């Protein structure tokens, strides 16, 4: 929620995507299966990638069962394979998502058993195929989840702090701030409270033209019966060529945190991802822009997700941290653009600066507010 426009623009930049259209909490588009694979590999902001198999109207359990059965599931799920069903929405005849998922599952396994003499099992953890049904205003939409696990699981993070930001949200914020263009001009990026390093790794991946899905170990289409291995390998080869072509780019991405164990974990994450990020142990009050011997480094971007809640000692701690951050920005980051996720109004109040822009976003189910400050004019 709140990122639909960013995702729409991102998809519009992927070759072959046709008519990306924002919806509530989603973006719809058309394209070939190869385009779908390319979107899985390259979308930094999408959480899932669903390929729609069919739609039908109705509000009853019977309509759901018959509509799902009208799809030829022998083209999608092996009789000796496994599946899981996700269901969103309600109607007078489908009063909760659990019931909707059960009727969907019944329709699929009944059809496959009649055709093949056996039925797929249910595996909620690592199914061969994930089926997704969405019900809204008496309209059912039935899809296969090409991603499988959520797309924010890039495959590089081994350690995480107490409240890590999702990779997809971090990417959304960086795109809102126009970081890719700034990176092309050599601008530096700093996160003075980097936690597990999510902002830094997303920023480095963008600057180095690395497909965010390239290192994922598992995909939802791997055992899907309509999976085209050659098309997928072609999309992967294209992404690998782009990664190699950008491998020698110089980037300026820096992270710091006051906790040495947190810094150690973030460094391990970056090393695992093979991303050239520089880390220091440092309090936010001591944060400074990176030095440039020739004074040629452009003004840059500071992006951070400050800690909040009990870790700061409550409201007073949040306001104190905000004051430290606000003072640091005014004293040392003139000309920079700063983007701060405000976990509490006390932190925003403590910063003491008027934001250039605010935006409501969601870190999973958690509502958060993004504050942008252009310090003395910004980028």
List keywords for this structure.
379 residues; alpha/beta; VC0802-like; Rossmann fold; 7-stranded mixed beta sheet; 5-stranded mixed beta sheet; 11 helices
Structure description:
The protein is an alpha/beta fold and 379 residues long. It has two domains: 4-145, VC0802-like; 167-208 and 249-377, Vaccinia Virus protein VP39 (Rossmann fold, 3-Layer(aba) Sandwich), CATH 3.40.50.150. Helix content is 34%, strand content 21%. It is built from eleven helices and 14 strands. The strands form three sheets. The protein has a seven-stranded mixed beta sheet, sandwiched between helices. It is elongated and about 70 Å long. The two termini are 27 Å apart. The model has no long low-confidence stretch (mean pLDDT 92).
Summary of the model, kept short:
This protein is α/β, with parallel strands linked by helices and 379 residues long. The protein has helices at 4-12, 33-42, 61-69, 97-116, 167-176, 179-184, 198-207, 229-245, 260-273, 315-332, 345-351, and strands spanning 18-23, 26-30, 50-57, 82-88, 121-122, 129-136, 139-145, 189-191, 253-257, 278-281, 301-304, 337-342, 357-363, 366-374. The protein is elongated and about 70 Å long.
